[in-house]
Amino acid sequence: MRALLDALADYLDTELTLYAPVKVGNLDSSTDAICIRQAPSPDGPRYLSGRRLRYINFQLLAKSEDQQQVLDAMELMSEALELSNGDIVVPDFEFIKCEVTTETNWVEETSTNQHIYTALFQCQLIRKG
Predict the structure, then answer these.
(1) Sorting pLDDT into bands at 50, 70 and 90, what band is 16?
(2) Mean pLDDT of 105-120
């Protein structure tokens, strides 16, 4: 669901002052970077009305030589992404909520001494109409 990821990246870039812009897709390998990308998601329940709750899971990754900078950014983003009804606009969908499912964890140190951290989130959406 690229539209949701784009909306979340725009939201983070607009609401927070981060050390790097939030990119959708892969983590830039050459510099300090932050990215958001979709993760596997479970199927949501279908209501009697025929509408189905959509779960969209995603991962935030952040990388920098400055470990504290990455941890601070991950904490800011995790707090900012505790969202509810209508906080994010996604075409054709009603945004229900977003919450962290796995808190920030260290992933690895790259060969260029950059530290990568990640956190996992889940959004809930319902198709309009």
Answers:
(1) very high
(2) 96
Q: Are 15 and 27 in contact (CB under 8 A)?
A: no
Examine the pLDDT at 48 and tell me if it is beyond 90: no
Rg (CA), the chain: 15
Q: How many domains does the chain have?
A: 1
18, 32, 112, 123 from 1: Cα distances, Å: 24, 25, 32, 11
CATH, residue 34: 3.30.2000.10
CA 52 to chain CA mean position, Å: 22
Strand pairing report for 53-64 and 33-39: antiparallel
Domain range enclosing 55: 2-127
